[in-house]
């Protein structure tokens, strides 16, 4: 193992959240440690899910282990202390992270990669009666509960709110899992715009639109949910849909404490960082993945960016700890999205192009499995 010597003695760097970027940074730290630096990881889970494989897990293509990273092990290999706890606030005056179940943890440098969750606060009743796709562990508990009692459920109805890539992928993969198990079930997909997947080119949306119809998913477009009640959603058009389960897969949002802790944020409350992945207001704080917005280079909240930021994050943390100049990171303008359709096929979306075939599922499967197993090889 190589060691990078950092002149400052006994600095404490805290990784908050074991998202994709920090999992990579920890893996790199396991190979090239920082001397004279204490490192800690705070995570509210031991096993962090890899979102790219989550729909495949729902469909039954992957086991739990195959799509989760063991953060405790990763921290151990990186020589970092592991705190299983949830951050609930940040005190930037005293440089402390406020934790739900333990005393505050002080830091000299902080790196935040806590992801995002669908916004359940903007619609009346959603926080009480809808099940957000994130935090993933809570969603998976509900999903496992459905599967465990599947034979006793008659006319199961699931409604998914949100017609972006996550919502559509979820609908198709739920279909794939339920179809062989029960004869009669209904999946509804409700989306506020007139086209699904508005962040992709029209061909991608058209392919998935046809697939949803083929699988008899009831598609409700241009329907804005204004209230969620127990087992029911109400849309502004007057449409009411009764449902056993309401899954919430709407736009990503940050936790309120991030918005209020004093870090400069964008208009939605995500931490504004520069191209060094460093907070524009607090130079000892870094942020990556969904929770960060790069000033002047906004990009979609997608795991592919969180992954790409892992190495630049590690490099810049190494550099700041050893008083070297930081290196800029620029997100790529065009990126390949591989969207699984629940039938071991995938759609490749690249700029204005779209391709749909089993080949792209194999590519996606290969890339995703490689990503996960890269954390087990050390
Ligand atoms: C169904 C679905 C499918 C998707 N598929 C894809 C895809 O195929 N490709 C793609 O690019 N994107 C995909 N996305 C988007 C992707 O999920 C996110 O962009 C990605 O997970 C963001 O990664 P991250 O590293 O920022 O955070 P995350 O992967 O969300 O990790 C954050 C980590 O921080 C932890 N954490 C959160 N809050 C706290 C706290 N307060 N204290 C301590 N720990 C905390 C979490 O438990 C988690 O371990 C999908 C999203 C959904 C909903």
| DSSP strand count | 27
Terminus-to-terminus distance = 11 Å
Largest sheet: 5 strands, parallel
Q: Biggest sheet, strands in spatial order?
A: 7-4-2-11-23
CATH C-level class of the largest domain is Alpha Beta
Radius of gyration: 21 Å
Instruction: Point out poorly predicted stretches.
Output: none
Number of helices: 11
Which range best describes the helical content: under 10%, 10-25%, 25-40%, 40-55%, 55-70% or over 70%? 25-40%
The CATH homology group name of the largest domain: FAD/NAD(P)-binding domain
**How much strand?**
25-35%
Average pLDDT works out at 95
Give the domain tally. Answer: 2
- Write out the distinct hetero groups bound to the structure: flavin-adenine dinucleotide
Instruction: Specify the structural class.
Output: alpha/beta
CATH topology of the largest domain: FAD/NAD(P)-binding domain
Give the CA-based shape: globular
The assigned CATH architecture of the largest domain is 3-Layer(bba) Sandwich
In a few lines, what is going on in this structure?
The protein is α/β, with parallel strands linked by helices. 29% of the residues lie in helices and 28% in strands.
What's the structural blueprint in terms of helices and strands?
Layout: E1 2-5, E2 11-16, H1 20-31, E3 32-35, E4 37-43, E5 47-49, H2 54-59, E6 68-70, H3 71-78, E7 81-84, E8 87-91, E9 96-99, E10 105-106, E11 109-112, E12 117-118, H4 126-129, E13 131-132, H5 136-148, E14 156-161, H6 165-178, E15 185-190, H7 202-214, E16 218-220, E17 225-229, E18 232-235, E19 240-242, E20 245-248, E21 252-253, H8 256-260, E22 271-273, E23 285-287, E24 292-294, H9 303-308, H10 310-321, E25 337-340, E26 346-350, E27 353-357, H11 358-373
Parallel strand pairs: 1-3, 2-4, 2-11, 4-7, 11-23, 13-20, 14-15, 14-20, 15-16, 22-24
Antiparallel strand pairs: 5-6, 8-9, 9-10, 12-21, 17-18, 18-19, 25-26, 26-27
Helix pairs in contact: 1-3, 1-10
The protein binds flavin-adenine dinucleotide.
Flavin-adenine dinucleotide (FAD) binds next to α1, β4, α2, α6 and α9.
